[in-house]
Write a structure and sequence with these properties.
heterodimer, A: two-stranded antiparallel ribbon, 14 helices, 4 strands, B: mainly alpha, two-stranded antiparallel sheet, globular
Amino acid sequence: MLTLELCVAGVMLISLIIYMLTGGADFGGGIWDLFATGPRAKSQRTLITQAIAPIWEANHVWLIVIIVLLFVAFPVGFAVISTALHIPLTLMLIGIVLRGSAFVFRTYDVQSDATHRRWSRVFAIGSIITPVMLGITLGAVASGTIRVDVESGQVTTDFFSAWLAPFPFAIGFFTLTLCALLAAVYLTLETDDPALQKDFRRRALIAAVSVGAMAGLSFILSANGAPTIRHGLASASWSIPFQILTGAVALWAIWTLWNRQFHLARILVPIQVTLIVFGWGLAQYPYLVTPDLTFSNTAAPDAVLRPMLIVLGVGGVLLVPAFWYLYAVFKGAARKTKQTEEEIGP
Amino acid sequence: MTLTDVQLVHDGEPLMTDLLAARAQMAMSLAFHIIFAAVGIAMPLLMVIAEGLWLKTREEVYLTLAKQWAKGTAIMFAVGAVSGTVLSFELGLLWPNFMAYAGPIIGMPFSLEGFAFFLEAIFLGLYLYGWDRIPKYAHWFSGMMVLLGGTFSGIFVVTANAWMNTPTGFSIVDGKVTNVDPIAAMLNPSSFSQALHMTIAAFLAVGFAVAGIHAYFLRRDPDNLFHRRAFAIALSVGAVFALLQPISGDISAKRVAKYQPIKLAAMEAQWETERGAPLRIGGIPDEDAEETRYALEIPKALSFLAHSDFNAEIMGLKAVPREDRPPVTIVHFAFQIMVACGIVLITVGIIGGWLAWKHKSLPTQRWYLRCVTLCTPLGFIAIEAGWTVTEVGRQPWVIYNIMRTADAVTPMPNLVIPFISFTVLYIFLSIIVVILLRRHIFLSPH
């Protein structure tokens, strides 16, 4: 039955998916900034910067939405996660601070190559730390190694064992490859320069294969590292068709990249990422922090959830058109015309 | 922060207790973020005025001004956004027991803040990068949305803080929170006064800081139209909000007097409960001897200011046991600093208005420009001091009279490590921001 807390959990999962598709791609941009190579390294970096600049701050807010929903709707879950995973979350925050500030500093600092390179390095490192630590956090939450005394809501396990393990790290790097894939695929359509398109096509293919490898590795490690999730992913009635669907979309995406059907790839890859995150969400259900905390045993009272869902509904009516307008202006059809005008321009 | 909290380094003993490290990290993160947050709230107003004047008059200088201000704002906003993210996580990283308890109760303002901040970030992207991409009035509208988003974002966050001072909207039965009413919690007795005082403070501080920077250039280059226009807009904003601030200060003081009498006693270093209590200017509180020395006392003024009655009773610090008192010296000094900065800014604002009225021109007398230049940091000092009053004055409680700060802290050991890490990181960021702002703001376009 669809309880209020499950509605909130659903909104959190949708927000996480949107965060991956938007903010995740921004981190991916940082990864490709680090691996910008060849004669077009500089134009690759410029393209990444132009693509990210107007939207990264708005994309970043999805993470704040998730964290606010978590502490309002599942307060004990938030307390437990931030206690047991204090270290990876702190590292993630340092990544967030470095990424955001280095990006804006690079834009406004002197435009010498040395300075530019220095900020690029910081921006890239921040862009890598953040999704890896986010993935480690999600992996640790799923792993079943964080134990909680449900009565008092206090964590009974230590501050390292839950995340300092192969499975959370596999999820961390899995997340990183997803970000890299999204960014590379989006970037193929951010430029009209065939050479740059070629660069990012190659990067997208490498990332797509890495995603497959990390998915496989994560699945293997889940046998010991996250048995509950493994059970959900391998044995539930919905899971096998779901896995096949995800795999098929992934292969189709690689096929389109191979054949330079970038518009199609830009539709398929986000679908692939959505399916992966959504599949994880289904396998995670009903646990918020496996195995002691469920969505229902940590939920705030309905008196809190009901007005919050109303706020989410009303706020969404304002937010969605605004977010859409932002993307229409900077990523829509108008962008291309504008760029052409700038090139022709006076 | 009493001395008993501190473990000095001795034979490898920790430098700080974990509680002190957690409090220091939270305080440092807030002190850092609040500067950027205030700029993010108030700069859009200056930009919207400049751009509006451009749309109206088509004078190119206003467009140059709006674009110039937008550059500084872009830097400040980015650092504000990431340091704000740090704070939202630190609530759990440092105070998990507080959040497990309070999260749902203060969820309403935090959820609303999420939306306000979202709109701010979206329209800031459109504003900063959309100059040539969206219609002129859509661009100006984006600026208005950034202003509204930023202002409401600040109001909602302060509302959540107000609840920590005057918690309402729930009841405790057998040690468990029940009957949560998120709306009643949001509309707690301190919400209006605190949100009003902080919002005005942001516009006031930023108005005077920007006016101060342009005043500095006007002394060297008195006919520069760019700086004249910038100075006129920024000083007007600063002065108008400076005149409003005493009203909100009065509302705030009366709220504190009514709902947090011990905080008021610490602000005024008032030890004895008495009728017709004096207002103290200066003075050094002695927390061991429980008395305040060397203060200039204005008879009965505190009773009047707090309760509109010269003979009203004011509760003294001695009314509660020592362990329930906030650190008096810090709160008293911070309060004095805040009020002093405020009085200076109000005076400078009034003089500016009088000069402008008398000479029917921009007050660019050299001595006045020097005064405004010297006032550049005062609004921000007042903001920091004011937050010290409200946060340290609430101690030893994280939720006033309900949960002690010591009971809210995480069991995580070695908190001194993240504290030092974030401190080093923020010092580094501050240095870079100052260098970049110098590069972009200290310019004199003609």
